[in-house]
Amino acid sequence: MSDTVKLELPFEIAEYRDRARRVRERMVERGVDVLFVTSPPNLLYLTGFHSIWYPPRAPLGAVLRADDDQLLFVDYERHEHLARALAHFDEARFFRYDDAVDTVAGLLRSHAGADGVVGVERWSVTPGAPVLDELCARLRAAGVGVSDGDWIVDHVRLVKSPAELVYVDRASRIVDAAYASLPDFVRPGCTELEIAAHIDQVMSEHGGERAAIETMVSAGPEVWARTHSAPGRRPVEDGDVMYVDSCGVVERYHVDVCRTFAIGRDNPGAREILDYTAGSVLEVQRGVRPGDPLDVAQRIGEDYVFARYSPEQVWWVGGYALGLGIRPNWVGHTYLSNDAWEPFTWEPGYLTNYENILFNREGGFTASYMESLLMTEHGIEVLSKLPRTLTVLPG
Fold it and tell me: What fold is seen in the domain 13-156?
């Protein structure tokens, strides 16, 4: 068997080069000479590399210098063939577990030089914090400056390119197809697990990938308390209200949609809430323009919902950036409330979800929806074509 493998990338090399260029510009603004990228979504963004497992012991990632357009990829030796098949890079080094920290610390030290500052991403699921602690300690012991490298790449990828938006559009159509299939599949007796599996299967049949968070299906009299609950073995029953949240995914670009369903018969309470809150998206579209701070939308949404419903009925009104999602989550670092890790504005190409989650404890139901909103040059586009109101499924 040949040692050469064919490189498979979802974008042209020029797209990756442009991303790295914009990251280097951001590095200069932050005073970072060398950036060690550890976040799997950020690594995917810069190189195209995606694995089902990122070993906690292995400080895999990408190394960029602010004054050089070369990109260094580092990973453990068992990923070498995978990396050469999936990742764009100019140079690669593959370490063993027993020399991982020494190897990566040495590479970062040589890239930084005598007076350089190395920015390290720490808000990442891998590697484990003790590995990064030891890595940073080695750098400091060698006289290298170490600083916060988080949100540099995340900031750049907040605005989607035209090439990225092609995948976003596909993801939106895939998740809509899955929801449209539910009336023909869901019946009393189906379990939440079966319904979630059906949604995932339909999306895979349309070319979709598994989402970075498990598809959520919750039904029954305790559905109001089960936001973020995994699907269970309980069969849905006639009269249940069912909450479904899932993402269409293409090349790890996520489009999030949540809808509320009634099994067998209408639920007037849930319908009344959704008939009203569905209008908050229209208010956000009318009130937000390109360049506005993100929290303009947050204030509009809250004002609209709280004008009729008390805070005790509202689980959340808000949203967060969407884009590249790798388990365990799809959540970006900016929120519509602009109170998270970095404030931002509604730039054309910015993609966020938008949630109105309300519930009635005594009535035993939730009345919720989520949309994915894309800012264009002309205003906000709602990606899903599905109605936000209550859908009654056959009994």
Answer: Creatine Amidinohydrolase; Chain A, domain 1 (3.40.350)
Please give the pLDDT value at position 365: 96
Query: Residue for token digits 């109105």?
Result: 356
Q: Which pTM does this prediction carry?
A: 0.96
CA separation for the pair 37, 264 (Å, rounded): 50
Domain ranges in the chain? 13-156, 162-393
Residues of the chain with pLDDT under 50: 1-2
Contact yes or no for 76/92 (Cβ under 8 A)? no
pLDDT at residue 4, as a whole number: 60
Pairing of strands 314-318, 351-360: antiparallel
Domain 162-393 has CATH 3.90.230.10: yes
Distance separating alpha carbons of residues 201 and 89, to the nearest angstrom: 34
Q: What is the predicted pLDDT for the residue at 394? A: 93
| List of residues 6+ apart from 221 with CB closer than 8 A | 240, 364
Q: Which pLDDT belongs to residue 2?
A: 42
- pLDDT, residue 250, reads 98
C-alpha dist (Å) from residue 269 to 106, 241, 276, 301, 311: 63, 10, 11, 21, 17
